[in-house]
Amino acid sequence: MGARPVTVRLARWSAEHPWRAIALWVVFVAVCFVGGSAAGLKEASHADQAVGESGRAGLIVDAGNFDDPAVENVLITSRGGALDPAAARTAADDAAVLLRSVTGVASVGEPVTARDGSALLLPITMSGDAETASDRVQPLRDATARVQDGHPQLRVEQVGGPSINQALDDTLGDDFKRAELLSLPVTLAILIIAFGALIAAGVPVLLALSSVAAAMGLSTLASHLVPATDTTASVILLIGMAVGVDYSLFYVRREREERAKGRSGLDAVEIAAETSGHAVVVSGFAVMISMGGLLLADDAVFSSLAVGSILVVAVAVIGSLTVLPALLAKLGRWVDRPRVPLLWRLTSPQAGRRPRFWPAVLKPALRAPVATLVISVGLLLALAAPALGMKMKFPGMEDLPRGTPAMQAYDRLTVAFPSNGTSHTVAVRAPAAEADRVGAALTALADRASADPLFAPTEATGPKIEVSADRRVSVLEVATPHTSRTAESVRSLERLRDDLVPAALGGVAGVEYAVGGDIADSEDYSRHLRDKLPIVVGFVLVLTFLVMVLTFRSVVIALSSIVLNLLSAGAAYGLLVLVFQGTWAEGLLGFTSMGAIVTWLPLFLFVVLFGLSMDYHVFVVSRIREGVQAGMSNRDAVAYGITSSAGVVTSAAVVMVGVFSIFATLSMIDMKQLGVGLAAAILLDATIIRAVVLPALMTMLGDANWWAPRFLRARPALAATEPPAPTPELVGSR
């Protein structure tokens, strides 16, 4: 007999030396976490995240080394009717006197009256680091509130970047706290239902949490090679909990199943390692390959997410092959304690009842595979069709939650003072000797733009032009009255880039210029991702195909897995477009449609779904192959593989759907889209794809499923278990 696979040898050693394996795992997690904390996190800089012309504009602005302090405003408006100028001026004077005495205020400017007289604006410059201004803005807001108390007939409110950021941090902080508080009990509750025993339900959560902790530390170390972004930790938690629970679930269910057949604890662990453990390794590689495709996007955010995801998946795989067998061996039959009486009877592998639900679901696929395949694929393609009309945009200020006073004040500010709303940044770098010519050109550009309805009128104080201390960098803000996701805002960007800016600056010697801003960021990033998407998709498809070919020794199985995962991703895209590009679901999910999908979501969703879907595919097809290798006919093997894996796949999918659905309740539109997209795709994949399309396709193909060129036909050793006889309801309909 040949050497046992590495997965089996690792599991065997861990099961025979459980305390050593557990101790080594604890030390590994602690060293990773402590080492990462000691090394500190290196965050991606503006230069790391620069994309397209908007990225060049940002780098030019950074080169100017501007003293760019945080700015707040006190906005004074009427509560009804026309604004009383004298009363507004008195309130502004009171606010100026009070705010000058507040710690953190560097200066208070002169009040500015709106063109239509509907508002008065008092600018406030804060001292200290602008990056931390939102942490220090509360005393200013308290002072403004006291002014409001003294002038109840007016609306006196504070608005600006720091106060908006503080309000959003509070809102999003509450959102994520709620999500974190809900996700763990939801996961535990689903696992208790799946296992019917508390310890068995706790083991997957324990492995997932420890894997996340280790990966957090490793990703902090890795950030010194690939700088991290502020979303990396959230994605590590999301992916780590998903795969950590999945891998443990596959392993624990198989170990319990083998013990129920009368095998010893050690033998049950070994068989679980040879079957489910092997599937975990393959699916782990598939997930890592998918996430590795993000590195080809040439984007700092995606590179950081890729590294974090790869690390947490690798750690989860290692944990499922080492500490998990040790825990199962040490717990023995205690893993099924304490039992939940009713749930235990329903879920126990000793229940002795044949499943009824899944055989009923499988009947159409086994009896009429061609018709079932055509109908189910047709429905999924119909669901995917709306994806052809997908539009991509960055969320703008108008897409932020409107429930906070700061955002409501911002809306009133942009109505009264349009130049304080959405704007383009014209960044210019030229020799210092040309500074006066650059300034004159930018002033002329601002005047010309002001006469165009695509742009907001210039304020009475003149255009906003900043010049660096060395006179080499000049920056002009050109405002537009149109919100960032409208066609008019995009046309205003194109007008600047194609006409106004080249015409104004083309004659300046040695000049370098670029147009940036929120609108430019969105357009340039969308174009960048559209260019990179084919490269990333091609990489993921080719490498996943090779992994599947080498795993199952079948070209057909590899091709079908690719096609089914593409079908699943396409259906998820179509559903996202149906829900979020229209308005019918706004009341149901609590959002305002931006008429588009968030720019980064399609690419990220593709790699995550492709990787996670492969978990189920590898596990299900592995069980089908076990049946084939044990001598079953193809049809009986399909029936055995689907029914024997349906419980664990369904449980794993329900856990993921439950956790991802929590994200759909968050306030931010990008988190809602991510939650709905992931939850819907996993649900479709674990039900229609794995329980209808896959069995219909494999039944239709018959023995052709396992075709491969001669050099690939070497078959791995048979699993050390014998599949039970197929369910009678699924046999005889030949």
UniProtKB/TrEMBL annotation:
Keyword Manganese assigned: no
Annotated signal sequence range: none
Annotated transmembrane regions: 22-41, 186-213, 233-252, 300-328, 366-388, 533-552, 558-580, 587-612, 637-664, 676-698
Coiled-coil stretches noted in the UniProt entry, renumbered to this chain: none
Origin superkingdom: Bacteria
Entry keyword Cell membrane: yes
Membrane topology of the entry: Multi-pass membrane protein
Domain Membrane transport protein MMPL, first and last residues per copy: 65-370, 400-716
InterPro entries: MMPL_dom, Mycobact_MmpL
Alphabetized UniProt keyword annotations: Cell membrane, Membrane, Transmembrane, Transmembrane helix
Pfam family of the protein (one): MMPL
Subcellular location: Cell membrane
Chief place where the protein resides: membrane
Entries under PANTHER family matching the protein: MEMBRANE PROTEIN MJ1562-RELATED, MEMBRANE PROTEIN YDFJ
Protein name: MMPL family transporter
